[in-house]
């Protein structure tokens, strides 16, 4: 079904109810408002990846306890000039999240110590996880995987290419992560996108142990985080964070724990009932997850994320869908919508809002019942 006056909708039958997801796209106009777009972005019904990079999460997750805000695009130096370093920000209402952006750099050896080259000038840098800190230590990988991964390959049918102890679990798509020191590090590319409060430095370049990654710098960005990446992994079954030998779990400094983004018991061990939660559905970076759900009329601002304006300010459209669902053998029920996602394509100046509404039927409905379930969406 297509929502009236533009948009897309989909229905699913879950064990917790019948859910309708609705997506509507708007273009940003010069007066700072959102107008219905002639180009409607379809619902994303399977995750999108490019290599190791997690690009887009599902749009059809109706039970998210908070609203995800995600921004795609590029970081731009002001007015077409070049910059060596700048900050990019996303602001929603009174909350903002910033990343530090630097031109291309490499690892060098100076006076017997590791150092970083100065950032090169840049005009634009894509907002991709491949530009952030992380990745796989390709030099340490053969030795680390020899005892754990390689013996599994004859017994497992699926591809184990991306399964490795040498990966950085916050962002295996990134660059700059090193487990063990090696002369081959010289010339290695460094991340261009970092957390301004937790940057990579020469002194933190080498983790020293494959279980020391929680103590390394965090990955920074404005995109969706994969289900198996930390900290989202903390809601998808993680029982306890690994830590290297000799580290006291009671005093270990893990950034996400200190910021309150994950519970402290990820350090000490978690009971089974706390390992999986509805928060697994929220795929934005923690700083851009909003609970309670956003209303959809908030003011937003993008700094250094638009090629034409260094500061792009606008207000979300303020439209709320009316969603009515008729379970089999029952009358129609209007269900209150909740805003699941705000997705900004800064390059196209396009904003998409994803809403969901759920009705709990008297009798269980399964996927086979979906074609017979009636529903209406109106704005």
Structure, explained:
By secondary structure, the protein is mainly beta. It folds into two domains: 1-72 and 320-379, no CATH class; 74-288, no CATH class. It is 4% helix and 30% strand. The longest helix is centred in the middle third of the chain and has 6 residues, at 141-146.
Give descriptors for this structure.
379 residues, mainly beta, seven-stranded mixed sheet
- Which stretches are low in confidence, meaning pLDDT under 50 for 5 or more residues running? none
State the order of secondary-structure elements, H for helix, E for strand: EEEEEEEEEEEEEHEEHHEEEEEEEE
How many helices? The count is 3
User: What does the main sheet amount to?
Assistant: 7 strands, mixed
Overall tally of structural domains: 2
pLDDT averaged over residues: 94
- Per the principal axes of the C-alpha atoms, what is the gross shape? globular
Structural class, from secondary structure content? mainly beta
Which percent range describes the beta-strand content?
25-35%
Instruction: Give the CA-CA distance, first to last residue.
Output: 14 Å
What is the rounded Rg?
Answer: 23 Å
How many distinct beta strands? 23
Percent helix among the residues?
Answer: under 10%
- Assembly state here? single chain
């Amino acid at each position: 079904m297509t929502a009236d006056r533009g948009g897309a909708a989909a229905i699913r039958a879950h064990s917790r109810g019948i859910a309708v997801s609705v997506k509507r796209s708007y273009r940003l106009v010069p007066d700072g408002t959102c107008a219905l777009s002639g180009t409607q972005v379809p619902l994303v019904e399977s995750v999108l990846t490019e290599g190791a990079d997690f690009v887009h999460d599902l749009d059809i997750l109706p039970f998210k306890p908070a609203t995800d805000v995600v921004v795609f695009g590029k970081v731009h130096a002001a007015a077409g000039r070049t910059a060596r370093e700048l900050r990019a920000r996303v602001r929603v209402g009174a909350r903002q999240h910033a990343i530090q952006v630097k031109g291309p750099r490499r690892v060098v050896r100076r006076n017997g110590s590791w150092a970083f080259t100065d950032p090169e000038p840049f005009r634009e840098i894509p907002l991709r996880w491949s530009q952030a800190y992380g990745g796989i230590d390709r030099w340490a990988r053969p030795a680390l995987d020899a005892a754990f991964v390689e013996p599994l390959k004859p017994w497992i049918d699926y591809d184990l290419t991306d399964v490795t102890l040498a990966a950085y679990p916050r962002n295996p798509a990134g660059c700059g992560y090193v487990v063990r020191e090696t002369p081959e590090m010289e010339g290695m590319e460094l991340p261009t996108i970092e957390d301004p409060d937790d940057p990579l430095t020469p002194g933190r370049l080498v983790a020293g142990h494959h279980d020391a990654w929680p103590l390394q710098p965090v990955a920074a960005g404005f995109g969706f985080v994969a289900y198996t990446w930390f900290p989202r992994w903390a809601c998808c079954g993680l029982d306890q964070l690994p830590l290297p030998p000799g580290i006291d779990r009671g005093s270990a400094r893990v950034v996400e724990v200190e910021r309150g983004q994950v519970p402290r018991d990820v350090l000490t061990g978690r009971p089974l009932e706390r390992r999986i939660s509805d928060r697994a559905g929220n795929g934005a970076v923690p700083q851009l997850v909003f609970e309670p759900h956003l209303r959809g009329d908030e003011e937003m601002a993008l700094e250094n994320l638009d090629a034409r304006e260094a500061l792009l300010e606008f207000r979300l459209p303020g439209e709320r869908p009316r969603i009515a669902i008729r379970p089999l053998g029952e009358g129609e029920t209007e269900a209150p919508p909740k805003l699941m996602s705000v997705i900004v394509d800064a390059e196209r100046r396009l904003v998409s809002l994803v809403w969901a509404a759920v009705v709990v039927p008297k009798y269980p409905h399964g996927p086979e019942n979906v074609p017979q379930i009636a529903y209406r969406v109106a704005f």
